[in-house]
Amino acid sequence: MLPNMQHLLLSCSHDGAVRCLDLGGGSSAAFTEVYRAAEDSDGDYPSLHFLSRTAGEGGGPAVCDSDGYVALLDIRGTSSARFNLHDKKIYSVDFSPTRPWLLATSSIDRTVKLWDCRKLSASKSKSKPVVALEHTLAVTAARFSPSGARLLTTCNDSLLRVWGGGDDAGWAASSAVLDTTCIAAKHNTKTGRYLTPFQAEWVRGSDDTFVCGSLAQPRGIDVYRADQGNASGVHSAGRLLDDNVGSVLSLTLWHPTAPVLAACNASGKIFLWR
Prior knowledge:
Elements: E1 8-12, E2 17-22, E3 32-36, E4 48-51, E5 62-65, E6 69-72, E7 81-84, E8 90-95, E9 102-107, E10 111-116, E11 131-134, E12 139-144, E13 151-155, E14 159-163, H1 169-172, E15 182-186, E16 201-202, E17 209-213, E18 220-225, E19 235-241, E20 251-254, E21 261-264, E22 270-273
Antiparallel strand pairs: 1-2, 2-3, 4-5, 5-6, 6-7, 8-9, 9-10, 10-11, 12-13, 13-14, 14-15, 16-17, 17-18, 18-19, 20-21, 21-22
């Protein structure tokens, strides 16, 4: 759901489609296809991996795929623009909440890149990132903090990184003066072949506290804090545990308005914390 369209439920799929359900449509409501990725020469569609949690400047979300493309969607049914931004699979896309033209992408190519969507081109060589944040292994998630001041990244090198300081103006600057201060916490992110990769998430309304699924026993959600101005790193702030949780919870998401956290496992179960 997008903050500006909370009556719509959007989904993306490995079949290359984005579908939309109008929750106000009553019993006759059905999912309608609002985007279909371009098929390759063999007639196959790239897998879609992630829909942005927020809308861009045009009012629609972004979706990324296994071929390194990002599509900026117009869910009203008009044309959607597609751009080749990485050479390899893109795991996530996220718009800045304060600058909706600024997009963060995380990729298996070991980078997180920030893009000015107003300057993207159909020609890959002409689309230049504002900055590329290098990592040592594939990056499974990149999330702007609620104020847009910080960027949280989840990497397969078992580090959770927080980039940037306390002034979101830095993200809008040129790469020469961009605040790429980085502090990090060790966290086992090697979920393995059959588990969904972890994607750390900011606590709703906080630029300092975030959560991530955990491989530790007992199973639960790890909570971390990155204090403003704390250059020594990110420290643990506790764990969310429950006797009913016996599996790894890879993905988490905060309710947009209520103090509720949803977490899901690879078996199709969703757990809620209030």
